[in-house]
Amino acid sequence: MSEQEAIKMTLAGRLVSVMAETGALVKHGYNEQKNYSYATDADVLQAVREALARNGVLLLTLPGQVVYSEVKSKDGKPMTVCRLQVMFRFVDAITNESLEVEWPGEAIDVDDKATAKAITSGLKSFLLKTFLLPVIDDDADQDRRPRQQYRHRPGPPGAPPGVDAKTGEVKRLSDNQMNMLQARMQKFGATEEEILHAFNLKALPDMDNRTLDRVLKWLETEHR
Length: 224
Prior knowledge:
The chain is α+β, with helices and mostly antiparallel strands. The chain folds into two domains: 3-171, 2-Layer Sandwich (Enolase-like, domain 1); 172-224, no CATH class. Helix content is 38%, strand content 24%. The protein has helices at 3-7, 11-21, 41-54, 114-130, 141-144, 175-188, 192-198, 209-221; strands at residues 25-26, 29-31, 36-38, 57-72, 78-92, 98-109, 135-136. The strands form three sheets. It has a three-stranded antiparallel beta sheet. Strands 1-7 form a two-stranded parallel sheet. A hairpin with a 5-residue loop joins strand 5 (78-92) and strand 6 (98-109). Helix 2 crosses helix 3 and helix 6 (175-188) packs parallel to helix 8 (209-221). The longest helix has 17 residues, at 114-130.
């Protein structure tokens, strides 16, 4: 695929590419009070943010109608409940094509952060469901949970080639990523041999997403 053909890719095609580049999330958060692990907001954002940027997609968060109510905690303290609708807008940075999806958000807080938490909650669930991100346990959970309650789950069976079945980390470039990389190489006049030597690689497809980011930065800043 040439650079001109890559430019003509539809927004839906770019979102599919984002989905192909993101794997399973490891649970780095832990609730000591209720003894369970969970994927944090940062886990979700880190997984999706770089893939969106690589594919030229901007995600806008537009809060809509907000409804507040008040409840009391177990000890009688007033707590604010915030329920709102959020409009998420994907924008193709090249063609300006856009896609809007409305999504609910809800949170409760004893102070003044219920609104921000509701937006964050909505964003997290929206990204998880939109890009079909599975969430798996981390080995570190064994150190945090009571031993008799811990049971390791090795991750999705039958992971596709180039994806770590335990962590879901993508270790091989997708076709779209390879097309984009080759277009950038042509633009900056870089050869495959130069990249393989500079980053100690055996083959271009055999790199993970972090290495791809490093290669793209190297092309734009050092190989000129």
